[in-house]
Design goal:
Structural class: mainly beta
Mean pLDDT: 90
Distance between the termini: 38 Å
Order of helices and strands: HEEEEEEEE
Largest sheet: 8 strands, antiparallel, barrel
CATH architecture: Beta Barrel
CATH topology: Porin
Shape: globular
Low-confidence stretches: none
Strand content: over 45%
Oligomer: single chain
Number of helices: 1
């Protein structure tokens, strides 16, 4: 049963990429982010948890201004402080993510490069484990981000991205858990643009 589910997921991803007609302009990006999470457990007050993570993402242009992104990410969230006599445990999470990203050109100078801005929304499914335990848990998440892309004129197939990601984690063990951060990414485009 599990093998059938994984096969269907893989076929869906292949079918999606194949039918977008933008596979000739596939982009692959590698990036990292520093994050701050604000969360509260039921009956306990809110606390901050700091973290960092990285991701690999494939982007396929659907339109000249719209991309479909599929990625895998890893994030490590540190434990909160012990003020008030309690802490929230740190955890390590791995996620699969799907997003839609819209973008447009802000300016282009032939000798310097191109500056683009945009934003995206998406969803993620994460499997996480608490630090120093064998306890694992699953949670879905909703993501949003704003970003600036710089494409240097001397490397037109490379883009550097500065992003401000925001994530709402729907964890059963927390009343709410919100995460914001700042990220840096480098991506390489294979083929021509859409």
């Amino acid at each position: 049963m599990r093998c059938r589910f994984l096969s269907r997921c893989l076929l869906f991803i292949i079918f999606t990429f194949w039918t977008t007609a933008g596979l000739h302009a596939l982009s692959v990006g590698f990036g990292g982010a520093g994050t701050v999470a604000l969360g509260a457990g039921e009956g306990f007050g809110p606390k901050l948890q700091y973290g960092a993570g990285g991701a690999v993402e494939m982007r396929i242009p659907l339109l000249t201004w719209l991309d479909l992104g599929v990625g895998i990410g890893v994030a490590d969230n540190l434990p909160s402080d012990a003020s008030g006599g309690f802490t929230y445990a740190g955890f390590l999470a791995t996620d699969l993510r799907l997003s839609v990203q819209a973008h447009g050109t802000l300016g282009k100078v032939k000798s310097i490069g191109e500056l683009c801005a945009g934003g995206g929304i998406g969803a993620a499914a994460a499997l996480a484990g608490y630090e120093y335990t064998t306890l694992y848990f699953f949670y879905p998440a909703v993501t949003a981000e704003a970003f600036l892309d710089y494409i240097p004129s001397f490397l037109p197939s490379i883009a550097f991205r500065l992003s401000l990601p925001f994530t709402a984690l729907f964890r059963r063990d927390m009343e709410y858990s919100l995460q914001a951060g700042i990220g840096l990414e480098a991506s390489c485009r294979f083929g021509s643009g859409a």
